[in-house]
Amino acid sequence: MSSARAEPKAASASPSDRPRLPPGVVAALLRTRPGVRSEHFNLHWKLLEGLPGVLFLAIPKRLLARAVDRNAVRRVAREAWRSAALEAAPVAAMLRMTRLPPARGVRHRKAIVRAELDVALRTLSRRASAR
Prior knowledge:
The chain is α+β, with helices and mostly antiparallel strands and 131 residues long. The protein has 3 helices and 4 strands. It has one domain (30-130): Ribosomal Protein S5, domain 2 (2-Layer Sandwich). 37% of the residues lie in helices and 16% in strands. The protein has a 4-stranded mixed sheet, sandwiched between helices.
């Protein structure tokens, strides 16, 4: 048996190493009209100056009472954000759930949310790159 240890994984950037957002970004996002609307979500966005993209999520308890369901929607949203390659773009986005998707279970809800967010984030990407 070998007692050799594996090399430690490369650490991701800690929150203190990342560039800081200017104060009031979330308040400024909420004062804007939704840039992209879909059936169950509103997406407010604003271009940043030289900072990496950031996604804020608002999934209200009144729509999804169980924390496990809210967390599942958040995971799907972050996955869609990363696949749209918006984390490298200088854009701040606030995703707000406005209506509950009519789902027949967790998997069905995740599929509905992912399909809707892929379209919304693709639209956001096109609009942000046009500016």
